[in-house]
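Worked example

This section walks through a single chain of length 286. The input is the sequence exactly as stored; nothing has been trimmed or padded.
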Amino acid sequence: MYPRPFEYVRAGSVEEALDLKSKTGGRFIAGGHSLLPMMKIRVTSPETLVDIGRLDDLRGISANGGFTIGALTTHSMVASEGGNGFPAALKEAAGMIGDPQVRNRGTVGGNVAHADPASDLPTVFAALGATMTATSKGGTRDIGAADFFTGLFESALNDDELLTAIEVGSEGGGRGSAYAKLFNPASRYAVAGACAVVDLDGDGTCTSCTVAVGGLTPKATVLGSLASAVVGSRITEATAEAAGQAARAEVGDDVMGDVYAGVEYRRDMLGVFVARALTAAASRAV
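Given that input, the structure is written out below as tokens.
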């Protein structure tokens, strides 16, 4: 199908982009890999597109104790980031998104702002405890990942705000992370995905653990029940399996199914991929 007619304007700065959106009531577009397909099937029909794709000051990754990722940083840039201490799960997830064309054009900010529960990055950012920076004419505000994703394709961004950057902490020194997913072979979206972040002491005992899941829940969700199954123990095959069982129990009925994979199958697969993510994260916690 074809989208309904729309106006197109290109912004030369963040300030101009915010001004254009205020005047037109339009939608921001950068890579367009989420918005354009929705426009083609007329799920959404904005009257104006405000192109922010050439705002180079929103592109790139900088180290500052942790890492700041500009909203226009592409998935391929994240997947190839070689910075010491850059979260392994984030590189891993970015490299699993779509195909090379999508990874070379799609942006981190667009992906996150779209808040698709089957996308990979929201799950990883939730587990990492990332901070999102939203910019408006009134200034900036920081939003924790736990509060940013509010529902199915819904986020805490206000209509007058633009997501400009995402901050994550570094890892190493006993902390490791990993992302694992069962993907739809056609779209490569997550049928069930899990990101684990663990801290181990010198004896290999887990001192803290955060697991977030996506693909099968209406939003990227941090599971609170897993800590009791993991913290205080070494992460062995048995520990990881117990965590997978805890994950299945916690998501309960809050699971979405479709013609490709039903609710029970997704819930069962979640346990498998939670265990895989935990095992991989523990192996990197050096």
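What to look for: The first strand starts at residue 7 and ends at 10.
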